[in-house]
Amino acid sequence: MCADTNNSIENEEGDDNDEEAEEYEPVFKFCPITNSSEFRENKNNTKNAPAEFSCMAVHARFIVVGKTTGEIIIMDHMGHTIPQYQIKAHTYPVNAISIDDNGDYIGSCCQEGKVKISGLFSKNEDQLHTFPRPIKAVCLDPNFSKSKQYITGDTTLILNERGTFRHKETKLIDFQGGLIHTLRWKETLIAAANDKGVGVYDLRARRLVGFLESTDTNTDVPRGIFPSRISWNDSTTLVIAWASTVKVITITNDTMYEHQSSIPRKSINIAASFKLEFFVCGLTSINRDLVFLSIENFTISDGTSELSLTILSPSGKEYEEKAHDPFSMQGDQQTSPFQFQLEYLPDEQCFFILNPYSISKAERRDYDDHIDFLIKKQKFDEAIQAFEKPPTRIDAKPKRHTQQSVYLAYVTSLMGNKEIEKAVKLFPLVYKTAEEWEEQILLFIERDQLDMLTPYIPTDAPKLHAPIYQKILETYLQKKKYDKLKELLTKWPSDIYDLSVIDQSIILQTNSEKTPQALLECSAIIAEKRGDISKTLTIFLKMQNIQVFQLIERKQLYEKILPNIQTLMAINQNYLDAVFSRKPDDTRDFHTRQVSLYAEYEPTKLMGFLRKAGNYNIQEALSICEKKRLPRETVFLCGRSGNGRVALQIILNELNDIEEAIQFCRETGDKKLWDTLIEQSINRPDFIRGLLNHAGGDIDLQDLIDKVKDDLKIPGLRDSLCKIMQDYNIQMSISECCRKIIVHDCLALRKQTVTLLQGGYPVKDSDLCAKCHNPVYSCDLLTNPPISVFFCLHVFHAKCIETNPDVCGVCSTNALFTTA
């Protein structure tokens, strides 16, 4: 079985794999927590520093590190030493360290064959034992505080116990394969590794469960360079790694021997075996995942290369790679594979990695690290998306990053790539204080790139200091960029800078006769902001600037402009038109003048004005229209002045428009004008045809036809007469249809009325006679007297109205009831 190593460091597929490797996001982040130079007297000489660390053990509360000098140091998980717990355990290098589950006792062994048990909180339990051979491994019972048992090994696995009077040693089994260098204790099972292989011993049954010899066939390196690495996944699963070979074995109860002993006999089975593309220098197993501290290669001459942390997860019957993160440590190239050590801390879900020169900590990267990765790869769109819309997972929330930090990285990259315009658009998301903005503004002024930045400069939240706004305005003034200066003066509120300072600076440049128009506009804007409206008006009038009309509208200066009407009209003749449209009364005194202006500049608007305005001199207006040859306006004015006959003549003779003449006669309602129109038309065939087609309801067509000469040829007369007849027929048809509809409706209503009158009326026994006031009938009687009900719904006994049975005695004014 081979592990999936698609993310291995070695590139075998060319440039495509290089690109994929660049896109690969690491799973872990690595940081050194201490190095050997911190524990030497001469800390300055770090070059060729000797190795200091020899082994390590990790507990939930602390880390215990053995030194080559024989000392044992205790530090927290951040690498800070705890001075009161330092132990002078040995005089030779410490080979192995073991900690009980409670963290009360530390066991250590050294090359001179000594094993020391040190109590952290009570020195009464300290033990020191000497063995005849070097001891490379020691392992405390996880429950050492109660059992006082631990395992050591030279070539033999030895159980050590504290007896009543003396130390007790029990030789469990001789592995006959060299010194035991690694021990792992899990419940009643002990795994031991030496150069020959790995054995599992059942302490309860006091028998060997099984032994697996090393299967690594690598002959390029000396034996012992890649010692066996072992790790319990649980009490029934053990993982073994020899160089690049991995075996997963399971421990099961052997059913063949159940009847021979009350203690089950166990056996080992190989569940998985596969080769790796790297060499293992450390191993731990976590929830069936295999975590390897690995190197790419090792030679005696070149040392180690490409240190990495790799995770393999089970997938069916195989394992696939979930992480392969390269990293480096101080002195890693000078470290032999057997000198590395990997330990796992479940409480913090992190790894500690030791070599003789330093200790590093490997933690899973959090969501902020993911954003860091995207920023480093310059995937800023993805980084922004990751920050603003994180997944719904609990751990997928940025804690360290802010919107400002993400966008700042983006802006920094854009600025570095000279994408200034794109970068400045993001400045409001990055710079939140006045000081930050002012620093950027001064930098852009220095680079002569202020134009790019000014659209985004804030005037509130944050509000910058007044001198910085003045610096911007004066920069544009000095560079003669008056349009930009005008834009900012218009856009910015007047309370963020000193108006008098800017006004004085502008005045210094407006003394010449050839002052640019844009600069004069700036001066007018400053004057308005300072409340000097008269000065602003004067400047605009002098410039003949169309903005004067906006000023008049904005400040309601209608009375002040009367002396300057001629100037205003010279600037824009549409101004009075706009004022008249909004407030006609404000221009009453200028209506006659407006007639002249409309006739001169906007003749199409004159008719509308003449109809709406009422304060112009009709005779002057008529003279203007006649002079400008505006016949329709002349017709309107003639009609308004009561001279309809002249107006009609203009329509007929100048406009030659019979339809307009008909319309004019209809509007005036003067019968004499109709007679005039007929008289003027009887000799003009086209006019006669127009009257026949359009004035049939206004004039007597018979009279018109009688006045037409018999020999006058009228083109289209037949069609006109046919149209008259058709219109008449249509009118008669419509009248007949209306008559039929009325008759039908009358008959329907009559039938409905008759049906209503013939219908019955319900009478209840509670109804009273309107005359005698007794019930009209009783349910108890078989036969009730006859009754009468009138349309007014009054009910009577028939005998009560015998004298006048056809008249309601209540409603009638001629027959009133009298009291009997």
- Approximately what portion of the residues adopt beta-strand conformation? 15-25%
C-alpha Rg, in Å? 56 Å
- What's the name of the CATH homologous superfamily of one domain? YVTN repeat-like/Quinoprotein amine dehydrogenase
What can be said about the biggest beta sheet? 4 strands, antiparallel
Spatially, the strands of the biggest sheet line up as: 1-30-29-28
CATH topology tier name of one domain: Methylamine Dehydrogenase, Chain H
Total strands: the figure is: 32
Text of the CATH class of one domain: Mainly Beta
Q: Total number of helical segments?
A: 27
Mean pLDDT: 84
Give an account of the 3D structure.
Residues 1-22 are annotated as: Disordered. Residues 53-356 form the Vps41 beta-propeller domain. With 820 residues, the protein is an alpha+beta fold. Mean pLDDT is 84; it is low at 1-15. The chain contains 27 helices and 32 strands. The strands form 9 sheets. It has a 4-stranded antiparallel beta sheet, with no helix packed on it. Helix 10 runs parallel beside helix 12 (499-507), helix 20 (618-627) packs antiparallel against helix 21 and helix 21 packs antiparallel against helix 22. The longest helix is centred in the C-terminal third of the chain and has 42 residues, at 717-758. Among the domains are: 28-365, YVTN repeat-like/Quinoprotein amine dehydrogenase (Methylamine Dehydrogenase, Chain H, 7 Propeller), CATH 2.130.10; 765-814.
